[in-house]
Design a protein that fits this description.
single chain; 35% strand; 24% helix; seven-stranded mixed β-sheet; 231 residues; alpha+beta; Double Stranded RNA Binding Domain
């Protein structure tokens, strides 16, 4: 039956779509665009984070700042109070949802029973059969991080980098470690650099995860369970 054939075809098409979206889940690929007027030395690499009015008192903002601070430390940056900082570092970020449609050719098997029947053979009883096509639509999400470094005393922009990736991950917090690593890899990049950075996928979110083990309740003292039951 045609519906049975379509059912057999959906699985390989869905698998192909998953591989397309996840990149086989080995690496997370991020497009990075950088604009640079960097001339700082290690001696002047002190900084403080600056926040927009909407980012004030934000726990989410503080979480992302810590990730950026960890990466900046590898390039001899030191976080200090704002009044004594040489640079100010500002962050912007967002997530947007969309859909991707993948169409795959599917070859159905020989409809005639017999020893030569194979489920996905392109050969029918009288020669090759034309393929049908199955379309699979899946949600995708684009995550974006912008990091802007300015000279505190002059307000001059020194470095502006944007990292963007798209996959099936619906959480910005899970994507953020990869965005931060990609944005600051090989700092400072040349002015007008556009490149793709691949970071190995870590199911733990490269240090951020919402998978928290549940604590087991402490063992009750002997006899306590019976007393609690009689209350």
């Amino acid at each position: 039956m045609k519906w049975e054939r379509i059912g057999r075809a959906i699985m390989p098409a869905a698998a192909a779509a998953g591989m397309l979206l996840s990149g086989c889940t080995t690496y997370v690929s991020t497009q990075v665009t950088a604009f640079s007027n960097w001339s700082g030395s290690d001696a002047t690499r002190t900084y403080a984070f600056t926040r927009s009015s909407a980012q004030q008192n934000s726990i989410e903002q503080a979480t992302y700042e810590q990730l950026v601070a960890n990466e900046l430390e590898a390039y001899a940056f030191r976080q200090v109070p704002s009044a004594s900082a040489h640079y100010l570092v500002g962050l912007t970020y967002d997530i947007r949802g969309d859909t991707v449609t993948v169409t795959q050719p599917v070859f159905y098997g020989n409809p005639w029973p017999g020893p030569y029947w194979r489920p996905f053979s392109p050969w029918g009883p009288f020669g090759p059969l034309p393929p049908d096509y199955v379309t699979q639509t899946s949600p995708v999400f684009t995550h974006t991080l912008g990091i802007r470094i300015t000279d505190r005393s002059t307000g001059k922009e020194m470095y502006n980098v944007t990292a963007r990736n798209t996959d099936e991950e619906s959480s910005l917090v899970r994507a953020m470690p990869y965005l931060v690593r990609s944005a600051l890899a090989d700092f400072p990049l040349g002015n007008g650099t556009v490149r793709t950075v691949r970071v190995r996928y870590d199911k733990r979110g490269a240090g951020l995860t919402n998978e928290v083990p549940v604590r087991q309740p402490a063992a009750a003292p002997a006899g306590a369970s019976g007393a609690a039951a009689t209350r």
